[in-house]
Amino acid sequence: MKLVFISKSDKKAAWRDSLQAQLPDLEFLIWPDEISDADKASIDYALVWRPPTGVLKTFPNLKAILSLGAGVDGVLVDPELPTHIPVCRLVDRCLTQGMTEYVLYHVIRQHRRFGDYEKMTAAGEWDVFTQEDARRRGVGILGLGELGRDAAEKLVALDYDVASWSRSPKDVAGVTSFHGADGLDGFLARTQILICLLPLTDETQGIINAEHLAKLPKGAYVINCARGAHVVDDDLLAALDSGHIAGATLDVFNEEPLPKDHAYWTHPKVIMTPHAASLTVPHSAAEYVAENIRLIEAGETPMNIVDLTTGY
Ligand code: NDP
Ligand code: OXD
Q1: Would you call 275 a catalytic residue per the annotation?
Q2: How distant is the alpha carbon of residue 279 from its chain centre?
Q3: Ligand nearest to C-alpha 198
Q4: Is 227 a catalytic site residue?
Q5: Are 69 and 48 in contact (CB under 8 A)?
Q6: Rounded distance from Cα 144 to ligand 1 centre (Å)
Q7: Quick one: CATH architecture of 2-92+280-297?
Q8: For FRET with 279, which of 13, 158, 197, 289 sits at 20 to 30 Å CA-CA?
Q9: pLDDT for 139-190, tens place per residue?
């Protein structure tokens, strides 16, 4: 069995070791250095992150394309993507845990005004803010999938007033479910801290725009840890500058790395991380990838096949 690894990741060796520990018979070949044209027909699986356009179709006998990330926008963007084999998303314990840590940290930071305390300390000021009740803090999560759901459940455990917005209705204890286009306005109206955990698709691109930001209550806070293209940057900057939006935590950007002259770098109401909200951890993600390969080899359906019509 042979797998081609197509990614600029600096964790190639860790992936090779972790996958071969799970699947000792697997030959792990790194594209392009370890692949000759003659090898291509013998490759069974492609493990990929943002593969260059047209590369996947040069492997004629793939059984599946396995994504190194939860989001597959960087795979589906290829107009020559082979569509007769499954594309599988990554769902992984460490990826979910990392995202939940990120969301909880930034929600609590905003709710308890720890950012304001940091600024006061730096300015040598002493003051105490009112402590708000988490039960009165409306936290809204766009996307209640693998990542959104785990974050929602842990926010509920901390007593926040949590709502979600998804395509289909949800039934998660303590989470008020909104869904579909008709549910969006009601969701936004009660959301003081907005978290985006949607996949990037034609339907969700630009969803954090002037119209939707205006429907959030004044003083709302935005956390985007999904994809940069969910946000219309000029609209978010205008809402921050008008004071309608109190601040934003941004992990992902329309262009990555964020250009050095972008307004976000110096904006006093923006805090940023470099697409690091949650990273794929090879030793744990390899268990999931190996299990998917075992399923396919056993003639069974792999987990988390992407629906190419909805794009996630
Ligand atoms: P899932 O596919 O499990 O969940 C997606 C959720 O979004 C589902 O609840 C789905 O609704 C909802 N959704 C999709 N389209 C729409 C729509 N048009 N309208 C309303 N709801 C919609 O994804 P994950 O939770 O695993 O991952 C989410 C995203 O997080 C990834 O796509 C990726 O972009 C991002 N990510 C970012 C990372 C980072 O470090 N910044 C790390 C990992 C992921 P329904 O349930 O009804 O289908
Ligand atoms: C992912 C990511 O989609 O890392 O997994 O962004």
Answers
A1: yes
A2: 10
A3: 1
A4: yes
A5: no
A6: 7
A7: 3-Layer(aba) Sandwich (3.40)
A8: 158
A9: 999 999 999 999 999 999 999 999 999 999 999 999 999 999 999 999 999 9
